[in-house]
């Protein structure tokens, strides 16, 4: 029997002069340390941009949830950079994740959508908006 592991991977790439794609894959529970890694990377990627637009691809199919402190970090990130988020695609397989996508769209300038597969999520992010 294998024990479930915590894991968090991030990639950030510029997709235009004022546009960034943040791709995340989370396993287990998101922790405060994950945000201590993510936030400086994101802020570094958008540094110097006048009007950054951040597209996010979040693969949460293996996510169990957030630590309380990490949930607070998530809220702070949304409050600080919410208007810069253009599109957030959440790939998941649990009903609470679909609800989270709907609630998340209240806190960002753009729109959030829930997908069950990665390919249509990525295609939606790549549409010109």
Series of H and E elements: EEHEHEHEH
Q: What structural class should be given to the helix and strand makeup?
A: alpha/beta
> Roughly what percent helix?
25-40%
Instruction: Let me know the number of strands.
Output: 5
- First-to-last CA distance: 46 Å
Mind summarizing the main beta sheet? 5 strands, mixed
**Distinct helical segment count:** 4
Radius of gyration: 14 Å
Shape category = globular
Q: For the largest beta sheet, what order do the strands appear in spatially? A: 1-2-3-4-5
Low-confidence stretches: none
* Average pLDDT level: 86
Give the amount of beta strand, in percent: 35-45%
Describe this structure in words.
- This protein has 129 residues and is of the alpha/beta class.
- It is built from 4 helices and 5 strands, in the order ββαβαβαβα.
- The model has no long low-confidence stretch (mean pLDDT 86).
Concise structural overview:
The chain is 37% helix and 37% strand. It has 129 residues and is of the alpha/beta class.
